[in-house]
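User: Could you walk me through two proteins back to back? I'd like the raw sequence and the structure tokens for each, with a short line separating them so I can tell where one ends and the next begins.

Assistant: Of course. Protein one, sequence then structure:
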Amino acid sequence: MRNYECLFIANPNIEGDGMSSVVEKVTAYVKEAGAEVANIQHWGKRRLAYQIEKQQYGNYVLMYINGEAPKIVDLQRSFELDSTILAYLTIRLDEMPEFDKVFIPEDDGEEDRRGGRSRYEGSRGKYGSSAPTGPEGKAPVKDVVLEEDEEDDVEMDVDVDAD
């Protein structure tokens, strides 16, 4: 039997018990493929590097699997057909890491671990928050008088060859 590491990203709209049922469903896929789960780690909801199926976040789950190569292809086919799984990656390991037990840690509830202000808070663009404002919060408008341009007579010489 070969050892595999499988990371899959589930839809972020699945919360709590729903995520446990997704993990159980994926475990059933593994058993249907004739493989066995050595360890499962639920990493929680994290921001994606780029949008997948219009989602910016995803629930990450890491699984270690023992199985045969043709059976793993069946597992990947099941991932493709499951609408709750946004993406997955399965790689072969030379050696299985040591684990004490199979566990699913609790989500800490933090969606974004980065601190600081939000993206739109305190904009410092071209006008920023320090742009001059007139009455009713609008920027003052200067009166500009446009002068009419004189029409220029332009003569065009066009030579047409007659055959």
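----
Protein two, same layout:
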Amino acid sequence: MPRPRAFKFAQAAAADQSPAVPVKKTAKRQPAKKPKAPAKKTAKARR
């Protein structure tokens, strides 16, 4: 289940990369990605 969710996130990121998207939207997405950084570290440790 987590994999399909990541796929959706990747698609959303690709849409945000579009030049038509304002810079304000990308800035809002950055802070939301910060809390996920520690989660990635745990995944590495589990490996």
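The longest helix spans residues 2-16.

Let me know if you want the two compared in more detail.
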